[in-house]
Amino acid sequence: MDETSRKKGYKENAKSDTVIEYKMVKLVRTSENQAVVSIQFTYSDLGVIPEIPYSVIKENDDWKVLLKPIEINLNKDSGHYGEIKEGIPVYELQKHLIK
């Protein structure tokens, strides 16, 4: 995904985001310049959701989080509750809804 598309997705997501609390629950350093950090979010409408892993890279002495679109199974009655899979960017979904 290119940088322009990524920024557009961030801005769209920020309009509807209802995060009221978050905490880092795990940090695993995979190399000198890479890590995986797991964050648990609390939403005003959903409550606490399963932790989400994020890849983090060190670039020019700065750490950057690689945000990717994901889908989280939030159906507590499902045998797959909390499973995360690759998702579709919000701006891509909107293109299909507008047509």
Instruction: Enter the CATH topology name.
Output: Nuclear Transport Factor 2, Chain: A
CATH hierarchy class name: Alpha Beta
Based on Cα principal axes, name the global outline: globular
Question: How many β strands by DSSP?
Answer: 7
Enumerate how many helices there are, as a single number. 2
Q: What is the beta-strand fraction?
A: 35-45%
- Mean pLDDT, as a whole number? 86
Overall number of structural domains: 1
The major pleated sheet works out as: 5 strands, antiparallel
The proportion of residues forming helix, as a percent range, comes to 10-25%
Low-confidence stretches: none
Q: Do you know the CATH architecture?
A: Roll
The SSE order reads: HEEEEEEEH
Structure, explained:
The chain has 99 residues and is α+β, with helices and mostly antiparallel strands. It has one domain: Nuclear Transport Factor 2, Chain: A (Roll). Helix content is 23%, strand content 44%. The protein contains 2 helices and 7 strands. Strands 1, 2, 3, 4 and 5 form a 5-stranded antiparallel β-sheet that branches. It is globular and about 40 Å long. The two termini are 22 Å apart. 0% of the residues are buried. The model has no long low-confidence stretch (mean pLDDT 86).
